[in-house]
Structures are given as structure tokens and as C-alpha cells.
Specification:
The chain is mainly beta and about 100 residues long. The chain is built from no helices and 9 strands.
Length: about 100
């Protein structure tokens, strides 16, 4: 847990503590940014360094994810990791695929 600065706006939202990806909620997030991350379930916060430039609405890995792992968001399985992603890395179609087809 961290203590955010007064009026500091989160960069990343995580829905459940069990999630392993979070969603970028600011424009222009760049690699190396010290992100304030908020778990919306209990309003707790933590910090994570962005490992890539990631557009608003896209996902970031909260921990190292390996090929074959399951991506978890909203406490639910949202897809299969198909390439290793380091903590702070961009999670998108190049490394995560739906299991629906």
C-alpha cells in the first residue's frame, strides 16, 4: 500500500485484489511513469512502474505473466496470455487472446 499525494489522480484502476491486469485511465501514459494504482473494490492503492507507453483504456500486467497464464480482470478470466509480459508491460492483442474461439 502507498499513501498517494493529496489530489493525486490514479493512473491505473484494478477492480479486484485477485486481478493480474489493470486498466490505464489517463491519456499519454509513458514508459517509466511511477503509476498510482487503485483497487476499486476496497479503494486501496499501490504503486507500479509502467514498462511501456500504454494508451488509455488498455491493460497493464500487475505482475510477470507467462505464456499460458490466464489474464484476470474484474475477478474473471478474460483471456490466455500467449507471450511473456513483464510486470508493468502492455497487455493487448499481441500477447493476450480470448479463449472464446
Amino acid at each position: 500500500m502507498s499513501n498517494p499525494a493529496p489530489n493525486e489522480v490514479p493512473h491505473l484502476l484494478v477492480h479486484e485484489e485477485a486481478d493480474n491486469v489493470g486498466v490505464v485511465v489517463v491519456e499519454g501514459l509513458t514508459a517509466g511513469t511511477d503509476m498510482l494504482c487503485c483497487i476499486t473494490h476496497d479503494n486501496s492503492t499501490f504503486r507500479l512502474t509502467a514498462g511501456a507507453d500504454v494508451p488509455i483504456g488498455h491493460k497493464i500486467a500487475l505482475k510477470d505473466l507467462k505464456d499460458g497464464d490466464t489474464a484476470v480482470k474484474y475477478g474473471e478470466d478474460i483471456g490466455k496470455i500467449i507471450a511473456d509480459i513483464p510486470q508493468g508491460g502492455h497487455v493487448h492483442t499481441q500477447n493476450c487472446k480470448t479463449k472464446r474461439w
